[in-house]
Amino acid sequence: MPDVIPADSVGIVTPQIAQFDTPLALSCGQSLSSYQLIYETYGTLNQSASNAILICHALSGDHHAAGYHAMSDSKPGWWDTAIGPGKAIDTNKFFVIALNNLGGCCGSTGPTSINPETGQRWEASFPIVTVEDWVESQARLADLLGIQTFAAIVGGSLGGMQVLEWSIRFPTRLQSAVIVASAPKLSTQNIAFNEVARQSIRRDPDFFDGNYIDNNSVPTNGLGLARMLGHITYLSDDAMGAKFGRQMRHDSYQYNYGIEFEVESYLRYQGEAFTKRFDANTYMLMTKALDYFDPASQTNGDLSAVLSRAQCEFLLVSFTTDWRFSPERSEEIVNALVKAGKSVSYAKIEATEGHDAFLFPIPRYMTVLNTFLTRVANRLTTEIK
Amino acid sequence: MRSDLEIIDEWVQPNIRVLDLACGPGELLHHLIKNKQVNGYGLEIGHDDLNICIEKGIPVLEQNIDEGLQNFDDQSFDLVLMTHALQQFRRPDLLIDEMLRIGKECIITFPNFGHWRSRLHLALKGRMPVSDFLPYNWYDTPNIHFFTFQDFERLCKEKNIKVLRWAAVDGQLKDHWWIRSMPNLFSETAIFHISR
Question: What is the mean pLDDT of chain A?
Answer without folding.
Answer: 96
